[in-house]
Amino acid sequence: MKEEGERIEKEKEKKRVQNNKKLQEKIDILKKTLSDAEAKAKVIEVHLHGKRQIIETLKKKIEYIQEHEINQVKKIIENRQLEVERLQKKIEISEKSIAHEQSEIEYKQHEVEMAKKEFEEKNAEKKRNTEELKKLEEELRRQS
Length: 144
Description:
Elements: H1 2-143
């Protein structure tokens, strides 16, 4: 029985050694897998860092471009406003000029009206004088 017990002990020991070897192999495989995963994680981290830098650079470029475009639009608006102001001044000057010319036209029309009245009065006077002259001539003929 002793031999049987020793044999069972040896088999148990052998199984334990085999189990330990298998566990050690699994541990080694897991260590290798962990090491590979850590290496991949570092590569991914470096890659992500590069991507973040690219994104930041692109953000800055976009901000710069937007700011540049905003400034261009502001300049265009300012130029348009100045152009509108110049045109408004020209319109005001033109309106004043038109008002002045309208005033001159009205004055000339008034002068024409006055000249017409004067002409009509002189024509009427001439007509009266002509009629009076005819009467006098007729009277002279009668007397002669």
